[in-house]
Design brief:
The chain contains seven helices and two strands. It starts with a helix and ends with a helix. It has one domain. It is mainly alpha-helical and 176 residues long. The mean pLDDT is 92. The chain has helices at 2-20, 27-51, 61-80, 85-88, 111-120, 123-140, 142-175, and strands spanning 92-97, 103-107.
């Protein structure tokens, strides 16, 4: 049995080398991150099944729109905001100021640490996790989830209004 495990480990290592083409890619770390996501989604699915609540045929258009806007805001807040940098600090290194109230960070470490750093600094990557949380939230605690999602959606709309105002003020100053 140990020979079989060693053979699989060697095969995976060879595949990792062939894939990475000489670059340091934390494939095992990515696999761990995916396993955590899969286990979390499966656990939440089991909880939903255990509650035996009737499931909607499909999500409402309003809930989908609310989730999309809230997911965009929360992913950006978690992955780029200066105030949330302590959450990313074990996996990243500060690089420079970013956009308004944002920072640029470099991923550090190897293996799972590097993979987590990539996840936590990528709003696109975090969106899948956040959207999954909202989806299960709508099934398990819809009223609370709508309130939380609405808060982040309002923040995203406020950000766009702030940027719009800044652009309009800059245009007015340039004309004057």
């Amino acid at each position: 049995m140990i020979e079989g495990v060693e053979h699989i480990r060697d095969r995976l290592r060879d595949e990792g080398r062939a894939y990475s083409h000489g670059e340091a890619r934390p494939l095992a770390g990515y696999a761990r991150v995916m396993a955590v996501y899969g286990a979390g989604a499966a656990a939440l699915g089991a909880i939903v099944a255990a509650t035996r609540r009737p499931l909607p045929d499909r999500p409402s258009t309003g809930d989908l729109a609310l989730s999309a806007v809230a997911t965009a805001k929360l992913a950006r807040l978690l992955s780029r905001d200066a105030v949330t940098s302590p959450l990313r600090a074990p996996f990243t290194r500060y690089d420079s100021p970013g956009g308004p109230a944002e920072v640029n960070e470099e991923v550090r470490g190897h293996g799972a640490q590097h993979a987590m750093g990539e996840l936590l600094t990528c709003p696109f990557c975090l969106s899948q996790w956040i959207a999954t949380g909202f989806a299960f939230g709508f099934l398990l605690a819809p009223k609370v989830t709508r309130q939380v999602a609405a808060t982040f959606a309002v923040l995203e709309a406020a950000d766009f209004l702030q940027f719009g105002r800044a652009i309009a003020e800059h245009a007015a100053e340039s004309e004057g």
